[in-house]
C-alpha cells in the first residue's frame, strides 16, 4: 500500500492550512462539511492521527472516528430533521477512496430522496455556512 502523504487535502485542513466548514473537534477527531455534498449536511469525520485508511490506522484510533461519526449522526438527525443516516468509509482507489486521509462520511437521509453521485457539484458557501451552523448548534445542544 502507498505510504501516507502528509500533503493530502484533509491533512492540510487539519493543520489549518486550508479552510473548511468545521462542525466538531475533540482530542482525537475533527469533523467538517463535505463541500460537494451528496445530501444536505454531508459531513466528514477524520482522525487527528496520520492514517491513510482502515488498512493502516490503529484499531483504537479507528474507534475514535466511529465515536465521532456516532455523535455527528445523532446531531444531524435533529439538525436536518432526517429520517435516517448513511455512513460510508472508502479504502484505496479500488474501494472508492479519493482523498487519502481516513474519513467517514455521515449523510443525513430523507425518505424517497436519493443521494447525488460523488463530487457532483460544489455547494454554495452561504448554504454550507448555514448547514455548519445548524449542525454545530445541534451538537452543542447534545
Ligand atoms: P472519498 O475519498 O471518495 O471518500 O471522498 C472524498 C470526499 O472529500 C468527497 O466526498 C469530496 O466531495 C470531499 N472533498 C474533497 N475536497 C474537499 C474539501 N476541500 N473540503 C471538504 N470536502 C472535500
TrEMBL record:
One of its GO terms (molecular function) is catalytic activity. CDD domains: HINT_subgroup. A motif (Histidine triad motif) lies at residues 101-105. SUPFAM superfamilies: HIT-like. GO terms for biological process: nucleotide metabolic process. The active site is at residue 103. Residues 9-116 form the HIT domain. This is HIT family protein. It comes from Bradyrhizobium vignae.
Amino acid at each position: 500500500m502507498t505510504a501516507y502523504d502528509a500533503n493530502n487535502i484533509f491533512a492540510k485542513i487539519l493543520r489549518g492550512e486550508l479552510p473548511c466548514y468545521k462542525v466538531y473537534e475533540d482530542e482525537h477527531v475533527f469533523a467538517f462539511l463535505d463541500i460537494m455534498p451528496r445530501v444536505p449536511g454531508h459531513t466528514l469525520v477524520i482522525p487527528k492521527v496520520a492514517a491513510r485508511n482502515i488498512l493502516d490506522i490503529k484499531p483504537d484510533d479507528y474507534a475514535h472516528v466511529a465515536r465521532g461519526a456516532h455523535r455527528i449522526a445523532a446531531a444531524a438527525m435533529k439538525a436536518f430533521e432526517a429520517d435516517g443516516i448513511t455512513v460510508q468509509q472508502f479504502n484505496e482507489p479500488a474501494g472508492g477512496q479519493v482523498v487519502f486521509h481516513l474519513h467517514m462520511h455521515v449523510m443525513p437521509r430523507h425518505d424517497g430522496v436519493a443521494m447525488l453521485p460523488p463530487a457532483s457539484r460544489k455547494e454554495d458557501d452561504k448554504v454550507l455556512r448555514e448547514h455548519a451552523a445548524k449542525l454545530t448548534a445541534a451538537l452543542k445542544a447534545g
